[in-house]
Amino acid sequence: MGHNLDILIKKINNQFIFYDKEIGIDIEELFLKGDFQNQKKDNVALINDDKWIKKHYLRKGHMTFLGDLYIYKSVKNTRSYKEFSLLNSLYKKEFPTCKPIMGWITRNWLTYTADLVMEYIPSVDLKTYILQNKINENDWHLIGKLIFKLHEQNIFHGDLNITNILVNDQNLEEKFLLIDFDKSKKKFSIDKTDRNVNLERIAKSLKKNNLFDKNNFNKILEGYYISS
To answer: pTM of the predicted model, to two decimals?
Structure first.
């Protein structure tokens, strides 16, 4: 999955940590000091004086009863490693997303828990931005272009909804960012079905939140297909 050779994996007691070898900070020292930890098992929490955001993986849907436990096979098959690897690859290719800092798993016999730390970017999600009545016609085109740019990297997003698109008003060059690549996949190529599934997921998310407008969605499609 591209750039895997850049990722270092280190074992510390019953934990495996992983990070890019070019990160430029002493990840192991910070980890041992507890800088990446917080006492709560919140799904998402700000750490390091709000400079980073920590994601703790929790089960959803019909597997909620398992909480934060996953079946262990190997480090590279864990949720946090796979997302870190994909995110790291995209970030290095200057795709608009959050910079990954590090990830780790805590192993307990057959199960593990998983965490991922990323740089925090002050922003609001697309749902909030729409509700604030700030979105304009060109924004919808930019969203379509963002999705096309992801597909250009042969990435299929596992949950392309309006809370996984962030809006950073302060960045005129990259106003929109894409996050949450859990369950996303690097594919040999993105076919028509993959494209439609991701685009339809956006439409479904807008409809679920009573924010769907056919003209606006058509602008997303225009932005997407103009880019192709």
So the answer is: 0.93
